Amino acid sequence: MSKAKGSFDKLTTHRLREMKASGEKIAMLTAYDYSMARILDAAGIDVILVGDSASNVMAGNETTLPITLDHMIWHATSVVKAVQRALVVVDVPFGSYQGNSSEALRSSIRIMKESGGHAVKMEGGVEIKESISRVLSAGIPVMGHLGLTPQSIYKFGTYTVRAKDDAEAEKLKSDARLLEDLGCFGIVLEKIPAQLAREVAESVSIPVIGIGAGPDVDGQVLVVHDMLGITQDFKPRFLRQYADLNKVISDATTNYIRDIRSGEFPNDKESY
Q1: pTM summary value
Q2: Catalytic residue among 24, 103, 190, 264
Q3: 124-148 residue pLDDT tens
């Protein structure tokens, strides 16, 4: 359990900056529903990301692009109801902020008002500068996301490691400084070289959370279905699987079916 739980009842963006300054690592996981969020929050997770990865793990889509703003608000509302301590960050989905700062503001306001989320996350750097500034001007906390940005997968054409060449690495470092200057409270770095991630984390005063970005950042985030072993066909190098719930659930279901067919369930004690 995070040390922060003993001293702080509620995680805030300010507290996250204090954690970075003191060298205390930040633990972050995704959640999309009430039951899972309640478990993660009680276990002491610092940040819960209501990620647009719900498009993949909850809806079975190939990419994050199909999920809508209404879908994200529905998932976020479910998560917020369960949380007492963690900071809840909600992804602004594809098509709800790129290229139109007014649309970005409307989308972010809807997320905050309708779900009760604590902050939003948007993918990109200088390309979405105006959208980030407009949202921040309304007092809405924004987390940035650089490196591999899944909403741009058709632009990249691959999920390979990003920023391996000098030009892309320099742009990423410049974008990170820009996000800090604009007022973002943190940055997610996805699937970039560990040394580059370390340089970025050292160059900014805001927390840098990695996913496939090595150990020398301020915290880590994983998709909870991947971490728990529910997802079986996605095993990237950066993923550490802490449980095999796919097997647990499968075995439990098999036993349930067996007991029903044999007449073992329900027994006398389980009947009225």
Answers
A1: 0.94
A2: 190
A3: 999 999 999 999 999 999 999 999 9
